[in-house]
Amino acid sequence: MKNNIILYQEISLEIKKKILNGSYPVGSYIPSEPELEKMFHVSKVTIRQAVSLLAAEGYVEKRRGKGTLVVSNQLFNKLSKAKSFSKIVEESGFSIEKKILSIETIANPEIDGIKQAFDSEVTYIMRMYFLNDIPYIIYRHYIRKVNEISSGNLNLDHISLYQLLKENHQIVAFFDDAFEGIALNKEEQTLLKTDTATGLRRTRKSYDQKGNLIEYSTGTYNTQVFPYRIEYEV
Questions:
Q1: Taking a C-beta distance cutoff of 8 angstroms, is the pair 143, 126 a contact?
Q2: Helix 4-20 vs helix 44-56: angle between axes, to the nearest 10 degrees?
Q3: What is the distance between the alpha carbons of residues 125 and 119, in angstroms, rounded to a whole number?
Q4: What are residue 214's DSSP bridge partners?
Q5: What is 6-36 written as a DSSP string?
Q6: Which residue in 44, 81, 96, 137 is a FRET match for 5, CA 20 to 30 A apart?
Q7: Within 10 Å of residue 108's Cβ, how many Cβ atoms?
Q8: Per-10-residue mean pLDDT for the chain, 234 residues long?
Q9: CA dist 225 to 47, 90, 192, 219, Å?
């Protein structure tokens, strides 16, 4: 039998999935604790741990005498006290523009960790961020194949990559980020319109609730234009 810690985390992920896909919309109440006990065939303690985890992540709030209210369906609530990087950039006086450079379907991406993780075709999206019309970030996204899309009908300025995944029934449960200083290659220097020799590489891997990789993205930053910063509220 699975230990209690793993069990309550799995139940929390199942409830979170229903919040993210709209089964439990913002402003509604999730089933009561007794109902959840019956649904998952677990104890009251396990359900309370699962709900407490959702509350800590910012998805729900317990209302005395009423139940547990869904207050957010935003994916990364755990980062809610960290100001978004886009917000930091805008507050520094820059305007941000996003442009899709290419979209294609790739059968066998030759990248370490991707070919083994994706057992089918992937959708590859390459896009550029500009700060005051200056090339700043090259993004390369590899995601499980989504519905037929093209740069003409996809606007990732108004729909996030994670909303796109959600609409294709791929729910991100957790992710990890890695940062490293890199030497820019000729293609990257050309796209970023810079002679700068070095840059910052951010690699993100996103997983579903079963631990399957559903997104692999890299962002290559020209930090001479603007340094990568994270600001936290305390």
A1: no
A2: 50
A3: 18
A4: none
A5: HHHHHHHHHHHHHHHTTSS-TTSBPPPHHHH
A6: 81
A7: 11
A8: 64 88 90 95 92 87 92 66 69 87 80 64 89 95 71 57 76 84 96 95 86 88 87 56
A9: 48, 14, 10, 15
Orientation of helix 4-20 relative to helix 33-40, angle to 10°: 110
DSSP-assigned letters across all residues of 46-107? HHHHHHHHHHHTTSEEEETTTEEEE----TTGGGTTEEPHHHHHHHTT--EEEEEEEEEEES
Domain 81-232, CATH among 2.40.50.140, 3.40.1390.10, 3.40.50.720, 3.40.1410.10: 3.40.1410.10
CATH 3.40.1410.10 placement within the chain: 81-232
Task: For residue 61, give the amino acid letter.
Answer: E
Q: Residue 4: its pLDDT value, please? A: 42
Both tokens assigned to 198: 């070095």
Residue limits of CATH 1.10.10.10 in the chain: 4-75
pLDDT value at position 32? 95
What amino acid is encoded at 15 in this protein?
Answer: I
Residue that has been written with the tokens 């030497």 in this structure: 183
Residue 194 tokens, joined: 């810079």
Q: What pLDDT does 197 receive?
A: 94
CA atoms lying within 13 Å on the CB side of residue 174: 11
Say what the pLDDT of residue 3 is: 45
Identity of residue 174: F
Tell me, which fold does domain 4-75 have in CATH? Arc Repressor Mutant, subunit A (1.10.10)
